[in-house]
TrEMBL record:
PROSITE patterns the UniProt entry points to: WD_REPEATS_1, WD_REPEATS_2, WD_REPEATS_REGION
Pfam families per UniProt: WD40
SMART domains: WD40
Residues passing through the membrane, by range: none
Official protein name in the record: Guanine nucleotide-binding protein subunit beta-like protein
Entry keywords, A to Z: Repeat, WD repeat
WD repeat start and end residues: 53-92, 213-253
Organism domain of life: Eukaryota
Gene3D superfamilies for the chain: YVTN repeat-like/Quinoprotein amine dehydrogenase
InterPro entries: Quinoprotein_ADH-like_sf, WD40/YVTN_repeat-like_dom_sf, WD40_PAC1, WD40_repeat_CS, WD40_rpt
Length: 286
């Protein structure tokens, strides 16, 4: 029987002083951003603090790794690019008009969506290479090849981006709300009530609904891929759940220290969570 348990946690002295809002992991480094504007790096194995910088004046809203670059997005309307090994600031992109909420990458560009509904494209060095207007706030974002998935609380829009201009065309509109992730052939997002997850085919022509993942008692706030055909979710019920997308079933669950602002899974199958009060913890699937 599959089980999950919290196996390590940052100490109160080393965790954030405000709610954790973003987390990503690469090899033995776990990057965490919080509403205090600080960016901290923890050791993957021990959850000991390795390094920290004051990255933004206001809350960090998302973090993303591309190559040797670590991108940070913030409510201060900026996107910054850091050397992922040293946390040396490489560049600060010209500010958006509104707070930047979420980022995604197709492996070539980084897409940053803001509260105005604008999505800007950045190269690995943080140079802006284009912009697209999505009309409404971007609460979740996914990019693959020339497709961009954006969602707020009422519907998912899948757009095809032009390779030569800032133009885009809508190729599909689906019911759903943030959070949202795409895992191979599956598209997973919140349902209208926010307490269940909708699993769809990741196909622009149909987006067929395959089923619902039900089990949370309160609204889901965080969702992440966790290996092939699996996702993890959590929310205001402080319960972390691992789901099998093909079987449409819960595989395992465990309590978290608080409501998570973000989740991330490492290549070795560990799950990292950060959230209320600034906690940062590591969960192992056994």
């Amino acid at each position: 029987m599959t089980k999950m348990e919290v196996v390590a946690r940052a100490s109160e002295e080393q965790q954030h002083t405000a709610d954790g809002a973003a987390v990503c992991v690469e090899e033995d480094r776990v990057y965490v951003g919080a509403e205090d504007g600080k960016l901290k790096v923890y050791n993957h194995h021990t959850m000991e603090l390795v390094q920290e910088v004051t990255a933004h004046e206001y809350a960090i809203t998302d973090l993303l790794l591309l190559g040797a670059s670590l991108f940070s997005a913030s409510a201060d309307a900026t996107v910054k690019v850091w050397d992922s090994a040293t946390l040396t600031l490489r560049t600060t992109a010209p500010p958006h008009e509104e707070a930047v909420r979420k980022m995604a990458t197709n492996g070539v560009h980084v897409f940053a969506g803001d509260d105005k509904g604008d999505v800007r494209l950045y190269d690995v060095d943080g140079r802006c290479r284009g912009a697209h207007s999505m009309v409404e706030e971007v609460w979740a974002l996914h990019a693959q090849e020339d497709l961009l998935y954006t969602v707020r609380d009422r519907g998912i829009t899948i757009s095809r981006l032009s390779g030569t201009s800032n133009k885009s065309s809508v190729v599909a509109s689906l019911d759903g709300r943030a959070p949202m992730v795409v895992s191979g052939e599956y598209l997973v997002c919140g349902d209208a009530g926010g307490m269940s997850l909708v699993v769809r085919e990741n196909k622009t022509k149909s987006g067929k609904e395959l089923g619902l993942l039900q089990g949370h008692e309160m609204i889901i706030t965080a969702l992440a891929k966790c290996g092939e055909g699996r996702v993890v979710s959590s929310g205001y019920d402080n319960s972390l759940k691992l789901w099998d997308l093909k079987g449409l079933k819960e595989v395992a669950s465990c309590p978290l220290p608080g409501c998570p602002g973000a989740l991330a899974a490492s290549e070795d199958g560990c799950i990292f969570a950060t959230g209320s009060g600034g906690y940062v913890c590591k969960v192992k699937v056994v």
